[in-house]
Amino acid sequence: MYVSLPGVTAKFVFVFCWVVIFNWSMGIAQAADEYIIQQILKLGKKSAYDAVFSPDNRFIITLSGTHKLEVWNSRTGTPFKAFSTGKHKAISLISHPQDSVLITGGNDNTIHVWDVNRGTSTNVMRGHVGSVSTLAINYDGSVLVSGSEDGAILVWDLTNFALRSTIQKAHLGIVHSVDIHPSGKLMVSGGKDRKIRIWSLETGKMIIELREHAGEITKVAFQSNGRILASASQDKTIKLWDWKERYAEHTLSGHDNVVTGLDFHPDGIHLVSSSKDESIQLWDIEKGEMLSALKSVDGAVESIHFDNSGKRVIATTAKGLVQLWELGPSSFLGALTGHKRFITALDFTKNGKYLLSAALDKTIKVWSIDQKQLAITFPTANHRVQDLRMSRDSRSFATAGADSLVGIWDTQSGQRIASLEKHQGKVNSIDYHPTQEVLVSAGSDRQWILWDLQKNQSTQSNKAHKDQVTIVRFSPDGNYFATGSADRSIQVWSYPQGQLVHTLTGHRKSVSDLTISPVAPILASASADETIKIWDISPEGGKKIHDLKGHGFIVTGVSFSKDGKVLISVSRDKTARLWDVKTGKLIKILSGERHPISKMAIRTDGTLIAVGTLGNEVILLGYPLNIIEVSKSQQSMTNKGNFAQSGQQQDQAAAQRAAISDAEAYIVDQSDLEETVEEYVEEQIYQITQTEDLTKIREMRQQSLDVVLNKGKVCENVSELQEKAIDVLQLAPHDLAAYHAFLKVAIAQQDMNMIFLLTKIGQFASFATNRYTYALSIDVENNFRSWKEQVLEQSQIRRQDTIVLALKSCLGSTKQVRIPEILYYLDIPEEFLKKIVTIPRFIDLRDFQGLRTEEFKNRLFGQILERLGTSTPYPENRSPLGNNFISPPVPSGQVVLNLEQTQLWGSAKQVRFQLRERNNPWQTYNTAMDKRKNLLLPAGQYYLKIGKSIRRAFVLNANQSVQIKGPDLQ
Fold first, then answer.
1. pLDDT digits (tens, 9 = 90+) for 293-332
2. H helices within 577-681, ranges in order?
3. Which of 113-117, 214-218, 591-595 has the lowest mean pLDDT?
4. CB–CB of 701/724 below 8 Å?
5. What are the DSSP calls for 605-622, one per residue?
6. Are 662 and 616 in contact (CB under 8 A)?
7. From edge to edge, which strands make up the β-sheet containing 289-294?
8. How far apart are CA 147 and CA 518, in angstroms?
9. Average pLDDT over residues 662-666
10. Contacts of 917 (CB under 8 A, 6+ apart)
11. Helices 736-748 and 718-731, axial angle in degrees (round to 10)
12. What's the pTM?
């Protein structure tokens, strides 16, 4: 049997991220003032009942007060599909742990099972005589428990949707919450009668009753190991119970109103809670102490959940909002405080070392970015600043005033050196020409004015708008400028002629800001109508390209990234958003600010975002590098998710892509532009040092690698390929093309150990299609996928015993290469692989080249044990270990896991599970395609977890194996 793999002939021989409060590191939470990435989903004016994650965390499923189910992309916040629950009128919701299935309880006293892909109800379970208020499901999705308003609890077998048992009058009044113990043998319930009851899941008999709360029980949940039971109540408290001993170890008092929800973090050490007091609180359950509290939630919180990884928290509110916090790397760099009223204008000095801010307190402040502190304050007297811009040489800056004047100020002294007077009313906006001593201003008198700054005289003016001009900006090349107005239009003017080129209409309210791309004739406009529009303003253009929707209030600022590929927007909805200019898709939301955002400025090098707020602060945010590549990787992962697109959605997506105008042709790669170094006069004032543009360097390295890959002669370019690939990975550890270069070398050198390692890493890397021309992304991805699924898939060896590949060496000879059996039993935890593609120099691929398989195994185990607990990269001057280095032997044994007979939902071919050796971090793996896994591990004491439940503790001795088999895994 011959199988075609790109780059190899394979022969099978059958031997038969407001101010934020969470900072997470290795599952441990600490209080910290940081930003986090956030999504805000609007479900409508009615309360949002609940929101849960899909099993793979890629989707959010919401249930609104209109009884409608909606599926959202959890990374971008974009809606995926929605469907009504009709007469069922769903009020409770749970996601199946193994498949694309939702289960809801309704006001019609029934339980519905929904096929998410089709948006239809596939099964209905009847038995309750009251509305189904709460649901719980066991770890493998075989058993469902439901509680209702009539006080009954029903237990269901989901393998055949049959009723297993009924507990009538389990509580006096509504059952608010139920949960199943990780052992699968017990369940707990809490109700209106203020009682917590623990039941035998098999017999339905009550085993324990707990009574200490002074109010109705709103939520109950078992810890992941089942030792602790948490309960929330209308009495504003949470209790942590040693339920076997029947006493509360801790009573958590921190909320000021009804506690509506709680959830344990997967680490079993922390708990998050929500309340109608509009707060979310994080607790250390071992100490019984509150770690932090988020009190800026918009509305009373109805429910709270962690995702399966524990890295995100999702909450629903009584105002119909779903808010998502990603507890990951922060963009927050600092806050500059000192103004007494809200910020009206911001601009960086040209070298980015200083930031100027103006506020309604009639002062201009100069801030040192490096030191994050105030350098000097300039009073403006009665000149209330509406806009502020730095001159080309940074010797001076200009202000637009409410006193109808344009002020020119000396940067060093803060003295006004000129006042330009011609406007008949408030001056709203100004901008400098990029190369000439010219300024443009615009104001409430509906006109724009061009000023000759050498003579301080106006040279041209035009009163073309029907209402006040709110914003004016020059294009980066100075060939035209644009004005936005309260009359809802944008006008584009040629310079120096002052002739109208385009009038752009489409906004429903006043235009609040606009910006022009640095690399293309593309303009973005922001409006009080909560939208952003991207326009083609080429001579033959004048058309809208994209309509960006998502902000929940006035959009107050827009700016392009340095390379023109990303648009940054800010809004009074307290968020900053990043958009892909080419596709118009939302990439990320940087949020967490406590106050509405009024202004924004981007540093010249594109690495820093400053936002001004109505809370008198200036917040500094780091611009996320590699944002486009990351977004493409996330989109690729989403497309492979469980929730398949319908044909109609695919058609709509294709139509949207086809609608992109020819203006995209003007977007060029930054690597095509010459790198220039400017000597700013400003250095003489502030003693500036130049900042390296890492984005530019990364793109140049990728282009250099592409040149070598295009040569196609691997054997002749082995050293150069590896060198270029290492250079790329220094700045872009997620770059799939760099790993592909190493894979080509490994195939040529017949190095099966490296092929194994690269295949594992490749499934988490992404291909930068806008950087590489040597191959199509789909071909590269298929290459890695073929190795993973056709050659190195463990179930292959169970079917065929031995796989032999025919590999052609660099000497031209074809060699039969037998895949070492040990490689089928080795695996690398997802957490380690994700760090490799996230942290530059987290490992050095050259450490693993040309090794005997036993040394490869020891070196790999050693690196995992040493590096998994850190996020610190190797120093740049570290040398590869080399073939002469002998790693300490790692005693190991084999875990033989068989989940073939375990009750699993639907057609899942693989099962995710986690292992933890003593107190080390959890490590995530997948079974092979036959639901089995033979896994070689270092000897030690392990815990096995499937879903959220710890299923087994075992000791693995050296050179021995442990058999773990379903259905009960005992």
1. 776 577 899 999 998 878 788 888 888 888 877 665 556 7
2. 627-639, 647-658
3. 591-595
4. yes
5. TSSEEEEEETTSEEEEEE
6. no
7. 259-264, 270-275, 280-284, 289-294
8. 59
9. 26
10. 937, 938, 940, 941, 942
11. 150
12. 0.51
Long-range CB contacts for residues 834-839, cutoff 8 Å, separation at least 24? 834/764, 835/867, 835/868, 835/871, 836/733, 836/761, 836/764, 837/733, 837/734, 837/761, 837/764, 837/765, 838/733, 838/734, 839/733, 839/871, 839/873
Query: Half-sphere exposure (CA, 13 Å, Cβ side) for 265?
Result: 24
Q: Strand 961-965 and strand 892-898: pairing?
A: parallel
- Choose among 577, 592, 571: nearest CA to 33: 592
pLDDT above 50 (res 516): yes
- The tokens of 338 are what? 């000192």
Helix, strand, coil percentages, rounded to 5, for the chain: 15, 40, 40
Range picked from 463-477, 627-641, 681-695 for highest mean pLDDT:
463-477
How many residues would you count in the chain?
970
Give the tokens for residue 24.
């997470």
% of the chain beyond a pLDDT of 70: 84
Bin 49: left if φ > 0, else alpha if -120 < ψ < 50, else beta: alpha
Per-residue exposure over 549-565, b if at least 16 CB sit within 10 Å of its own CB, e if not: ebbeebbbbbbbbbbbb
Q: Count the Cβ atoms, other than its own, within 10 Å of residue 71.
A: 21
The C-alpha R_g of the chain, in whole angstroms, comes to: 31
Question: How would residue 35 be classed by pLDDT, with cut points 50, 70 and 90?
Answer: very low
For residues 812 and 952, is the Cβ–Cβ distance under 8 A? no
* Separation of alpha carbons 767 and 527, rounded Å: 35
Tokens representing 791 are: 């050659």
